Amino acid sequence: MKAKLTSRKFWLSAAAFLGSVAASAAGIAVENDVITVVGVVCGVLSAAIYAGCEAYIDAAAVEKE
Hints:
Elements: H1 2-5, H2 8-29, H3 33-64
Helix pairs in contact: 2-3
């Protein structure tokens, strides 16, 4: 768990997700559906990209063994 909390990929993904949540909240506040949808899509993409990167790293680690 400590390795995850010190991972730059994790913190970058967390920042992207929080930025997406903020964009969605701003879209809701100004009643702009496009901003809200873009924020949600970016939040999902940031989580998916992080999961993909971690899967790639795990697969590379298994290949070494």
